[in-house]
User: What shape does this take?
Amino acid sequence: MNEKLERFLERSREIHDLTEIQQGLEWDQQVMMPRKGAAQRGAQQAALAGLIHARLTSPELGDLIRTLAEEDGLDETHKADVREAKRAWERATKIPARLVTERAQACALSQVAWEEARHNDDFEAFRPHLEKVIALTREMAAALEAPNAYDALLEDFEPGMTEEALRTLFGELKPELVTLLDKIKGAPNPPSQEPVLRHYPRSGQEAFSRRVMADMGYDLGAGRLDASAHPFTSGTFADVRITTRYDENFLNMALFGTIHETGHALYEQGLDPDRYRDPSGQACSLGVHESQSRFWENLIGRSRPFWKHYYAELRKAFPGVLDDVDLDAFYRAINVCQPSLIRVEADEVTYNLHIILRFELESALLAGKLEAGDLPEAWNSKMQELLGILPSTFREGVLQDIHWSAGLIGYFPTYALGNLYGAQFLEKLREDLPDLNERVSRGELGPVKEWLNTRIHVHGRRYLAPELCRKVTGKPLSIRPSVAYLTRKFGEIYGF
Ligand code: ZN
Assistant: This one.
């Protein structure tokens, strides 16, 4: 291997190792750290962030990237390494240090203000903070010198995706979902969610979740399951930890939350052992990551074949609780669809409408067509348009998500992309494994994991997400597989 490439990979791997330490500290903070340790941890994180920034922007790394970017002899994988490192290097060097610090401070304050404002249901208290975050985000987008401000932000979360492409996808998706939702609302025999709202002791939930995780192929020797206030997945390759949260009176929360996070974890555990520390060996994008979690949570975990196998076991895990509920009623109960105000509680049909709402608002904010003070009204009018319901509080409306307060603008679309990619991957998986349903209904989840491992995980970010989608499915990303899947599934459940 040429000496420059070797040095470049060495530097890149060191940066990766430092970001893994960052994640480890973050995990510890959420799961284990004593409350009084917060200030100390803040100082540690700041020191580490400074170290990583210095490594990322070092002139030596910049020189190596520039030289290697012009070299002809690199293979496809190393070209992708250089492409990925170049993007990170440019982002780290184009944004002035003053702006990075100012924005980090504004976001920290804004998150505290958001929490309080949400608690008091007081949008006006949050507004000045949000104004500041938006102004600094616009400034950051300008510093990145992209022709389109929203595209510049998207690059952080979903490289290769553009505002224009999202506008087209979501523009097609919106009327399809609104029509489907109208049919569901008019259905004469809606399913009842009551069976999942019974009492499910936490110990049983945890034991059952662990059983499903193991069947999915999650390696507990290379991970762990803990509880935290907000579920998340942390780490990569041989140390991938997930967290969940339990509600003894709502089965779905821990059960589907754990399956979701395990989907993320399988992606990280499935990265190429020789490349997971390299720039192109890491997970492709947030959208593709979310496609993995939602694939398992919804397309597999909320499917009838899955419960054909697991329902008897679930009943055994909670003796007596589901005696009067047959498989069909249970399947319908976990798939209830109804317009609701809160995104994180939304079902498979309405979820993407929540995302489209946020995307349209963000994109107007970035284009200067909307200001922070206009958000509550704009929010409500879009809720009315898309879901036909109105929040009576800010808490259930514009103040519900943490993202904007944290400066995460351009992040929301990746959730919807995850749903779309997932459905398109499932279509291809069915072609490759025609007896998928039979296998899943026998509890054989191994072939699903293996397919995802070899088609998606092992590539890391050798290809940008739109190209990965074409490589895996032979087609560009489209809303069709998702719309067809939802129409079939919910048509059967709601009888139209
Ligand atoms: Zn997720």
The chain has two domains: 3-145, 163-494.
